[in-house]
Amino acid sequence: MLTRAPLGPLLAGAIALLAIGCAQRSDRPPTLDGVYRTTVSAEDLGAIDVPDETAPTPGSWTLVVDHGRFAITQDGGGHGCTWAYGALGLGDPNVMSWMVIDAGAVPAGVAAAQPGDGYRFAWSRYRDVLSLSAARGGTSGYFAVRPWRRIAETPAASGLSTRCPPPAGALPPTGAEHATPSQDAAISFTGDLGRTAPTTWEGTGTASELGRGRLTLTGAVSFSSDQTRRRLTFAARFPKGELRGCAITTITLRPHRRYLWQGDGQITRTSPGLHGYTGLAVSLGGLTTTDALTRLHGTLRSDSAQQRASTAPPGDRC
Questions:
Q1: Which of 7, 121, 148, 225 could bridge 132 with an S-S bond, Cβ 3.0-4.6 Å?
Q2: 111, 17 in Cβ contact below 8 A?
Q3: What is the DSSP letter of 302?
């Protein structure tokens, strides 16, 4: 009778090393969660074709991947610092896509990435080194210029540059990544809010669909002659339940001493009775006058059911 010889120590070690290097198990989807870092020189950037107006800053770049989200900072020391965050998807085989939700820079200026930018990578990881390249039919921008080394397995915004971090709450998945709202879900809230704390605005109003309610906005808001852009979160409470979400909001000084609020976002969490609102795309708007900077006549509105029926689900908007 034939017997199977035991594996030799060298062969067993090689198999174990291969399993560690691949860092994936065949019975579960690939995961890249963690904090990655690379150092990029001017020579590295000079070797790729990037337009000057969107050229990134040489220096220390940090990437955080957290399930369906990513955030990145590019810190060039005295040469500036840029940030971006957005939605991340993993395909098969080993394809990664990014959609930038928001981006900025310190000092303020043209960021190296812009909201709405899309990237598509082929990726591979050996132990703690992540390598990216342009996937077929996609672009990798300048993010594939150098390999990334994973410096932490647990994703955390604290690993990003402290000089230009993304907005608070930008990295964790919102919970509405794959949500499809009910066709009859709609909101058209109008009310008057007041600034009750440095980062809080609250007030009451009415939504024709849900009745009398209270809207709370949270986030850093500032008024200046330059347009400002902020990620705000909101909570709208009605007798039927609560809606929570976020919006990327710009505040612009307009003629006749008016500040105009305009933002696109979505409902990301609800109480059980309003579950059909999860994922609903909304617009946050309003008006503040220069002689009453603690008051906001605000609105929270969704598209009509007919408009939504003709468009794709919003995906990640904030």
A1: 121
A2: no
A3: E
